[in-house]
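Weekly structure sync, notes
Attendees: PL (lead), two postdocs, one rotation student
Agenda item 3: pending single-chain targets
PL asked that the sequence for the first pending target be pasted directly into the notes so everyone works from the same version. It is reproduced below exactly as submitted, 361 residues in total.
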Amino acid sequence: KSMARSIGLLSTTRQCYSVSRLSKVSYRSLSWCHGHREEYVNRAAEQGAVNIPVGNDVTDYSQYHEPVGSLLSSLPSSQADWNRFKLSDQQLQSYNDDGYISGIQVLTEDECDMLIEQLSAFQQDTLHPGHGLFHEFHSNQSGDPNNALMHCLGHWRIQPGFHDLIFHPAITIPASQVIQPNTSVTPVRFWHDQLFCKPADHGGNVAYHQDYSYWTRTTPMQHLTIHIALDAQDPENGSITYLPGSHRWHRNGMPLPITADDFADMDSIKAVLTADELAAFNPVSMTLQRGQAVIHHPLSVHGSYGNRSPRPRRAAVVNYFADGTVAAEDSELLAGVPSLGQGVKLEGRFFPIVFDPAWIK
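Predicted structure, written out during the meeting:
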């Protein structure tokens, strides 16, 4: 008997649903706007919270803090591993200048196919047996069937390929080089993952935003985002798009306010920008081959336009923070993850070390 049927969610249209629950998790974030401190409640995240029981026969891969062999067989341990995946001086300069680095090859075509097959299990009429392990799930976050956007957090717990992806040295080694300001290399911990899926012809926007605007419940700001194209991306199918140099945009050290939690209003962020920021609002859309990634700063303003092409546009996102990051509040940091307490270092089952320079011999 399917979980979807047992809770009354199964439908023939499956255009949009978000399973809500009462939760102790905080969806509040702090920012500065028009000269004063603002608290924002992310209603979309509340709507996407999941409360579905998971059977004892379902594997929760968060208990494994090394690859399980689906995508990777081992962690990096040699100087050759470091040399193979480290960022060049030119790439580091690009990150400092623009706030992002594009075109990093992470996955092969076959690996993309494998992850898409595992992803497709989340897009069926019957919910995956591990659906209750998601921290957040939206079959269509926009709520508009003509602008569909599947978005979820927590699939590393459910599918072995996505579990192994968070440990991939093609992203963890570069992350260790740039994640902590004024430090050459540092241990990296996993924060959370995401999937963004835009169907052909009617895929929706992801409105411009800064990632740390959603993450002020963790501190200090020493985070990083890796966006990996599972399908080739270009402006026609809604590729990820950046505002170069916007990683320097902040308000008294705080990120810009969140302006569109349903992601629908692409340019809503313009309402909170200064005249100088508006003058520098010159979007650059990426062109990525399958398996290529973009690494970006937690304050880099980015988004993506809708997909009106005949091709799907699916992407896996992995978010990290530097070892030593702490909780800024007492609430749960992710739905289903026990509270650690304000000021407590983020570590343990849900925040594993994915790369430590000490591993390199």
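Discussion points:
- The first helix runs from residue 3 to 6.
- Confidence is low (pLDDT under 50) at residues 1-26.
Action: rotation student to compare against the earlier draft before next sync.
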